[in-house]
Amino acid sequence: MKSQKYLSQWWLLLLIFVLLAGCVPLQPAPEAAAPPSDMQGLTADVIGTVDFPTSCSAEAQAEFTRGVALLHSFYFPPAISSFESALDLDPTCAIAHWGIAMSRLGIPWSPTPDDAVAAAKVNVEQAVALGGQTEREQAYIDAIAAFYDNADGQAFGERAKAYETAMAQLVQDFPDDTEGKIFYALALLITGTPPDKDYTNQRMATAILDPLFSALPHHPGIPHYLIHSHDVPALAEGGMDAALVYAAIAPAAPHAQHMPSHIFSRRGLWHESVASNQVGVQAAKGMLPADAPAGTTNEDALHAQDYMMYGYLQLAQDSEAKALLDEINAITQAGGGFGSAYALAAMPARYVLERKAWDEAAALTLSPDSFAWDRFPHAEAILVFARGLGAARAGDVETANAAN
To answer: What φ, ψ does residue 297 adopt, rounded to 5°?
Structure first.
């Protein structure tokens, strides 16, 4: 896939910067779709279109299809609800247990929390006990079983590799299964490793998804995973086409509103990145219960706000960045896992380090106190590093050594 029609010529780049100067966004950023009052509001026009035929009843099939579309946009709570509804309508629909187990993975780039693993293993066991009604459905069940097998004794990366291998076999056995190809591309992205600067897995995923991008223009997973497969500076230009359409395909999915900013940030399109995340935050906050106490947030909102913070700082919009930091510091309850921990540690660190406010950096502390920081030492390390760097730059040797 090429994005030359958007950015490859220097004169188009000049035009873009003229537009930026006039505050005209490259990608229209309408308000996110209002959260539906019930699952029936999550229709194809707001979550995208997928075609994943199963042997389940027609009524269950409709709920299952909705669940897959939501899963592709990492909108996990309603995805699980849809798969559960499919099971209510057809208790023999084993593939719906697959959908729940997939959804319980959460954002799949880091290990799944233990409680989610335990719940997912129950779904896998139920799927295996029921058995796929077709060989294809059984292949999906076997693949997710490979991910959760030996979860207590096998590292996440090893289990992810077993899942990737199983999905590769599924694609080989069912070459006409489009969804299989898309989920295999996701598996490749899960197992891609940061040290690989040839980006082997990302390029393999792109080769799978590119031909499907134009053939299935309303599918939510294809542009989503294309953005992830180009989510490094060296490849980012190739992800522009997907970034420009994904949010409009799934306006009800908070993650879909944020995702274009991955490419905008890699390309230095800071106005677009901020605008994308403003919509993403709005959509994510719409997921909170109406009676949620003040100071409550969720992982989707925090992740988008982290990107927004970086965008503000790159634009030297320090007052906007400070207002965002004040909002973050007022949080008392933050749901989620590593994504929340990372954002909560990274945002205050970005704010002080980008401004070279060394004394402020040296005084950083973890917040909120109620968050389970002991579960995420690798996120806490971000703030400890920032504190040590600030102290060193400020000449506070004792504090710098304490952070070492």
So the answer is: -145, -175
Q: Which two tokens stand for residue 31?
A: 């308000």
- Give per-residue pLDDT as tens, 143-183: 999 999 888 888 999 999 999 999 999 999 999 999 999 99
Tell me the pLDDT tens digit for each residue of 43-99. Answer: 999 999 999 999 999 999 999 999 999 999 999 999 999 999 999 999 999 999 999
Distance of CA 357 to the CA centre of its chain: 31
CATH of region 1-8+41-253, choose from 1.20.1530.20, 1.10.10.10, 1.10.3210.10, 1.25.40.10? 1.25.40.10
Using alpha carbons, list the distances in angstroms from residue 320 to 310, 327, 351: 11, 11, 11
Map tokens 């899960």 to a residue. Answer: 190
Cβ atoms within 10 A of the Cβ of 359, count?
Answer: 13
Distances (CA, A) of 167 to 146, 173, 192, 242, 322: 10, 10, 15, 24, 45
